[in-house]
Amino acid sequence: MKTIAQISTPLGSGGIAIVRISGEDALKIGRSLFCCKKLENNEITPRYLYLGDFKLDDATEKCMMVYFKAPYSFTGEDVVEFQIHGGEYLATKVLDKIVEKGATLAQNGEFSKRAFLNGKMSLDEAEATIDMINATSDAEIKASSKLAHGNLFKEVKTIQDNLKDALANMEVCLDYPEHDDETKSIENIQKTLKNSLKTLKKLENSYKNGQKIKFGIDVAIVGKPNVGKSSLLNALIKEDRAIVTDIKGTTRDTLKETVNYKGLKINFIDTAGIRESKDIVEKIGVEKSRESIKNSDIVLFVLDSSQEKDKEDIELEKTIDKNKVIYILNKSDRPQKLFIKDAIYISAKDNKNIDEIFEEILKKTRLDKINYSELQITNKRQHEALKEAINEIEKITNENIVTLDILDMQIKKIWQKLGEITGETANEAIIDEIFSKFCLGK
Q1: At what angle are helices 428-435 and 123-134 packed, to 10 degrees?
Q2: pLDDT tens, 193-237?
Q3: Domain residue limits at 335
Q4: Number of H helices and number of E strands within the chain?
Q5: What is the CATH number of the domain that holds 95?
Q6: What is the pTM for the complete model shown?
Q7: Which of 186, 250, 298, 340 counts the most CB atoms within 10 A of its CB?
């Protein structure tokens, strides 16, 4: 493959910039541009930082150079990296000189793609690395870290190896039927499949939590006009983000704000007060509120605790799924007229009992006791592959399969589907799409 080069640090002024070269000509190009007394008459030592000068047209840049000899590098190829002073123009000039010497500019994620093609990482590890880079919460980093270290690969590879053994035994039975009991072989295969199914289902079931870890818990703040929804949002995010007035219908659209709480993202959606209205803009806002109720993980149903429930409250309550509702009785600083079991009594104005809401959200979503030592699937593509593999196994275990040749074809299909997770059987289009999500120089 051609030798590639790119700047691997963000462009802009900074302490250092790193320019990376990878390929069979990496060392040749690097040595041709780098002057160092220690290297004048000596062979270069891999993984050793050399201080010297990078030759520009009419100047030199004092920098460090390091050489990683294949296959002991990130890409699995010969790699040279220059650590130079962090200036955008300077880094570009260094890259230009490397290209003049024969390197080709690397595309997005091309170094990582080469690492995958050379067996230095699996496809699931690459996707986890993307998630680590883009993480915006502690929970995302914890979940991605487990995946980036190859834990999913190990689980899937173990199942694939067991399926491969089963296929080998079947081949023997098919080739030498006089020496093997077909019925017993089918029973052994069914046992292997059922054990595999348990592991795959556990992984697949983790996706629900994985999505909340990756994208956050969506929490809709719902209630009729003027019960204090916007005041509650401001109290939750500790910022005057939503407009608060005594005029009903102030909030005309949904307003979304994200808070990190105990390492998890919680997306609060302040909705328009739900009521009958002739105002076209308010009607659109009310419709969006109803959509938020439907699509959210949790609904904070806000009521005025100084007033008894009225017809509007009762009608709105009917539209909320009881399994995801948390009753919030606001204005607890006033004389109380409304009492609901297990409700959280707050005063948004005085920030009273606001932390209790966060705790109840985690409890309601069962994320208060999440075990980060276990794998949490956060990637949709991997989840789809797991579901399809599970469906294929369930077809075999639920149906009365009586011939080894049919089993042989179906197990090969399962093996292939699992290979899409690790990259063993993923097609080129999927691989290109995944690595295009990486930034330049990665």
Answers
A1: 20
A2: 999 999 999 999 999 999 999 999 999 999 888 888 888 999 999
A3: 216-364
A4: 15, 13
A5: 3.30.1360.120
A6: 0.83
A7: 298
Query: Quick one: DSSP state of residue 322?
Result: G
Asked, for residue 440, whether it belongs to a domain, the answer is no
Q: How far apart are CA 420 and CA 411, in angstroms?
A: 15
Read off the DSSP letter of residue 242: S
| 148-199 confidence digits (pLDDT tens) | 999 999 999 999 999 888 888 777 666 665 555 667 777 778 888 999 999 9
Cis ω before 177 (30° cut-off from 0): no
Whether 85 and 157 map to the same domain: the answer is no
Alpha carbon distance, N-terminus to C-terminus of the chain: 17
> Is residue 228 domain-shared with residue 189, that is, in the same domain?
no
pLDDT in tens, 308-360: 898 888 888 888 999 999 999 999 889 888 899 899 999 888 888 999 999 99
- DSSP per residue over 112-165, as a string? HHHHHHTTSS-HHHHHHHHHHHH--SHHHHHHHHHHHTTHHHHHHHHHHHHHHH
Say which amino acid occupies 391.
Answer: N
CATH number, residue 233? 3.40.50.300
CA dihedral over 414, 417, 419, 425, signed as positive or negative: positive
Separation between Cα atoms, residue 76 and residue 113, nearest integer Å: 11
118 found inside a domain: no
Task: Look at residue 410 and tell me if it is in a domain.
Answer: yes
Coil vs helix vs strand at 19: strand
Both tokens of 67, joined, read: 């050489």
Domain count, the chain: 3
Asked if 224 and 354 sit in the same domain, the reply is yes
Q: State both tokens at 77.
A: 């190829």
Contact between 389 and 200 under an 8 Å Cβ cutoff? The reply is yes
On whether both 144 and 264 belong to a single domain, the answer is no
Residues 220 and 201 both lie in one domain: no
The Cα 366–Cα 363 span in angstroms is 5
Cα angle: 181, vertex 187, 191; to 5 degrees: 145
* Judgement on whether residues 230 and 341 belong to the same structural domain of the protein: yes
Residue 116 belongs to a domain: no
Q: Which of 72, 106, 140 is the last residue of a domain?
A: 106
**Whole-number Cα distances in Å, 407 to 111, 214, 411:** 40, 37, 6
